[in-house]
Amino acid sequence: MRQSAVLEDLRARIARIEGVGVRHDALPFGIDELDQHLPGGGIAAGALHEMAGSPDLADDASATVFLAGILARMEGPVFWCLRWRDLFEPALHLAGLHPDRVIYVEAGSDTNVLLAMEECLRHAGIAGVVGEVGKYSTTASKRLQLAAESSGVAAFVFRRAAKAEQVAEGTAAVTRWRVTAAPSEDLGIPSLGRPRWRVDLERVRGGNPHAWIVEACDATGRIALPAALVDRPAAAEDRKIVA
After folding, report:
1. Residues 98, 126: Cα–Cα separation, whole Å
2. For the segment 49-62, what is each residue's pLDDT rounded down to a tens digit?
């Protein structure tokens, strides 16, 4: 067997062991500084991802809109599983996720949310499945990852009000994100600039954690780097926010 064939066989075996034997498309953010740190250059379909804000309402709202912006750029309906209906739905529309695309599953408990997610993930052809939970186990994350991989649907566990210092269990998620509110640009006049977030990629399979300051989603679900960061000279690169 040729060396290249041996290497391909080894890669396939490793992929099966890691539970990533089936490759699916990835949705890029369209920002090289983010996409180059993600497997496949974006948010992978057929995989589990984790989102978190913080106990601060502004941070949890920022994480919600960040997630809505990702889903807005995917095709198909969205299943949003939650314990009870405390989601401010108009905010999703501001990020481009039209309310007609979202089906809410009010499950009543973390356990039921996870069960509902797993059931929804059995159906191919939808954009994604979201589950809002306080916490979940490593075993539950593995079940969700396998279900997502089988159907090719992106799964998102949203850990509501999760503290930054809170130690999370091990997870099968491909990425883990934390999104918090950041100060807007000072316009020099009595007005508000475009909202900004600090986006932390806390964990990524096969990569290293990073953090960025970004401008919040527009009406099409797209985030952007502030102009000052895009245009700054290369000599200032070492001042970039990197976790």
Report:
1. 14
2. 999 999 999 999 99
